[in-house]
Design brief:
single chain; 123 residues; alpha+beta; Nuclear Transport Factor 2, Chain: A; four-stranded antiparallel beta sheet
């Protein structure tokens, strides 16, 4: 059984997803990379992470003005045993709305991002 957070209180996995997106927006790619699970971190260095983020927002003018958790799940068909949650974080600027979908998993005693999808939740 999965315990759900109190309504109005973000789940810890959602807080990590938001912190990750905020690090990307701040262009602190080293901090963002540190939030990745070992396997993902080994394939996505800070420079590549920055390039993926910049490609995501490249079609818009100006920096993001809103970064927020739009949707979360604790159960979904592809959920793995150590997964804590799925979160979609919207990243919006003056003339664009983009986002990332992440899966946060337990890695040892830490919560880490094990997967990232760039773009909308159906990307």
């Amino acid at each position: 059984m999965t315990t759900l957070p109190t309504p109005g209180t973000p789940a810890p996995f959602a807080e990590l997803a938001l912190a990750f997106a905020q690090a990307l927006v701040a262009e602190d790619y080293d901090a963002a990379q540190a939030m990745l699970a070992d396997e993902l971190r080994s394939t996505l260095d800070a420079q590549a992470l920055g390039a993926r983020y910049q490609a995501l927002i490249d079609g818009g003018d100006g920096p993001p003005i809103d970064v927020s958790v739009v949707s979360t799940l604790v159960q979904w068909p592809e959920r793995e045993t150590d997964d804590l949650g799925w979160a979609y974080v919207g990243i919006a600027g003056e003339d664009y709305v983009e986002g990332i979908t992440v899966v946060v998993a337990r890695q040892g005693r830490m919560a880490k991002i094990r997967s990232i999808k760039w773009g909308g939740p159906d990307a």
